[in-house]
Every structure is written in structure tokens, then in C-alpha cells.
Design brief:
The structure is a homohexamer of 68-residue chains. Chain A has a two-stranded parallel sheet. In chain A, strands 3-4 form a two-stranded antiparallel sheet. The longest helix of chain A is centred in the middle third of the chain and has 19 residues. By secondary structure, chain A is α+β, with helices and mostly antiparallel strands. Chain A has a single domain, classed as Macrophage Migration Inhibitory Factor. Chain A has 2 helices and 4 strands; from the N terminus they run E-H-E-E-E-H. Chains in contact: A-B, A-C, A-D, A-E, B-C, B-D, B-F, C-E, C-F, D-E, D-F, E-F. At the A-E interface, strand 1 and helix 1 of A face strand 1 and helix 1 of E. Strand 3 of chain A pairs antiparallel with strand 2 of chain D, so a sheet runs across the interface.
């Protein structure tokens, strides 16, 4: 009965991509650990780029610098 | 000083229900472990049904199938 | 399909107390939100008092001061 | 490669405050543990005061009582 | 820069299985969301079966019933 | 009443370092957001390098390669 929490930045993740993350993660736990998919939970958290920091900076700022 | 995180799907949870979850969880920690309620935190995360997967599928899809 | 994570300090929590936390939390989600207990997960994390801080100090130190 | 999750109530946290939390947390991990800032993640979760409980009550209610 | 937390019961997970979970999860985030693997973190938590509950019971008890 | 969770690899973190992380994080929340230190929790999780992955690999392997 695994529980998987995927935290990603909130940058236009489509419904198809969410479904692919859920399906792929569940399949991985079935394949590697023989877990029951019926009790495998996958929860995706989409985090604002203002609220995610790396290397001292907000991701929002990192994205702006990359676009320049 | 317990910290409890309750993750549920975002499906019209009322303010009264949130209050009941907070009160009940806090009381449980007082009763079972003699914790101080003043330093018992309960945090409720409401997760979009698109972002919660079980059995390979998004809960959104599972709800739609159940309604048919 | 709720997921509840209970973080408490690692201070001689008995197996009976763990069972009571699991049973009580699950019952609360059934009573308040009509959730299915078969897909309600409760995960208890026991954290060393060296690794839990409140009010600037480790809980280990707070416990020692309280014992004096 | 530390991962730090800061959960705070959603009460008008400014962008400058978020940036200060990210910068300060990252600097702390560099100073104390000599971690590489490029692989130090800081994720801030802003939680509705309806969804955060302490001392049996929602923070929303606690704030209202404090204002009276 | 995704962060993935996999919580599973602590039941003799081998080092090869951990490596497979890390590799598979990272590949999934590269394939689905085009994320950079160098800043994709995967953290596996192995939880004692005494500390994981489902359907009102500890997993320890569920495993014993299944063995009978 | 902030809750901060610091996840780091389990690599000989001393008690003094843990105390410094707790003190520094709490001070940051006091300074930036004017939070009450008495209800500011800091929880440190030390994760085995076998259980932490980055760039497709376990940190254990990355450390061994760095030592060669």
C-alpha cells in the first residue's frame, strides 16, 4: 500500500501528463515491489514557482533569467 | 507537540467537517498519548481529484465511472 | 481515500497506542467524511527528540529542563 | 541535496518574504552543513487558516477571537 | 526540479529495488515533463508495519492474518 | 504556528548541527514573518544515502564516485 507524493512546479501541467505520472508511478511500484495497484496512491502537488526555491532564488526568477 | 497532516480529495468539504477533523484528531492525541492540545497541529490538504491517483487512474475518472 | 501522517516524538509509544491512533483516525474519517476505511491510510512517524525543535530548542533539552 | 518544506498559514505573505525565507533557509544549510545551494530545495506551502488547527480550533477562529 | 517521496512498508526492500525505484521515477519525470534529472530528487521512506495502518488495522496484523 | 521539515542525508550530522538548524530556522521565521517561536516546529529527517536519489542514482553511489 505505497503512498507516493510528487511535488512539481505549477507550470501548465496537462491532465494527460498527470494521468501519465499516476500510471507510470503505479506501474513502477507493481513491477519493482509487486505492490497492489488498488492500494497504491499517487498525489501530485503543483507548487507556485514563487514558492519553490533552489540555489537561493525563487524558480520564478530563474525562469525569467533563462528567458532573457 | 504532534503534527498531523490529513490529505483528502477536494470534494466540497465543509467548514464544519474541517472543524470536526481538527477537533477529533486533537482529542485522539490527548486521549491516547496525553499530548498537550495547545501544541498539537492539524493541517488539512485538499487535493484536486485530477491530482490524486489510485489503481492507475485519477480519482476524477473513478468518480465518473461510479456515477454512470 | 485519505492519507493521514501523524508525526510524534519517539518517546516509548506502545504498540497499543499506535493501534489506537490508527483505529481512531480511521474512524474519524469514516464518521466525518464518510470515507471508505479500506482505502484510508494512517502513517505514524516517530521522530527522535534530538530532531524535533520548538521554541528554538531541541525537545531533548526541553524534556531535561522539565525533569529538573 | 537538502529538501526543506516550510508550511505556514496563508495570510498575505509577500513575494519579498518568500524570497527571504528561501534565501535564509538555503544559507543556513550552507553554513551549518556545508551543503551545495544549487541542490538545496525550499518549498513553501501556504495553508488556508480554515485548514490549520491548533488547540482544537481552526486558526481562522483563533484570529477572530484575537481581534475582538 | 521535482521532489518525489515514496513511502512504503519496511519489508526487506533490497538495494537493487531502491535503485530501480529511483531510476524509474526519475525517468518518468524526464519522459512526461521533460524535467532535468540532475535536479530530480527521489526520497524513499521505509515505514515499520507497526506504524502503517489501513482499514483500521496495523499492516503487521494484516500480514499475520494473511499468513494463517 | 509554522511547521518546517528539513530532509537531509544521514551523514554524521552532529547534535550541535541539529541545534543550529533548529535555532536558525526558528529565528528566520521570527525575523521574516514575525511568527511566535513557541509554536514554531522544526522537524529534521535524516535519510539513508541508499534511500535518496538524484540524477538517476543513489547518493551512496554518488559519494563513492566522488571519493575515487
Amino acid at each position: 500500500m505505497p503512498y507516493v507524493n510528487i511535488k512539481i512546479t505549477d507550470e501548465n501541467v496537462s491532465n494527460e501528463q498527470k494521468q501519465a505520472l499516476i500510471k507510470g508511478t503505479t506501474q513502477l511500484l507493481v513491477d519493482v515491489l509487486n505492490k497492489n495497484p488498488k492500494t497504491t496512491f499517487v498525489v501530485i502537488d503543483e507548487v507556485s514557482t514563487d514558492n519553490w526555491g533552489v540555489g537561493y532564488d525563487q524558480v520564478t526568477k530563474i525562469r525569467h533569467l533563462a528567458d532573457e
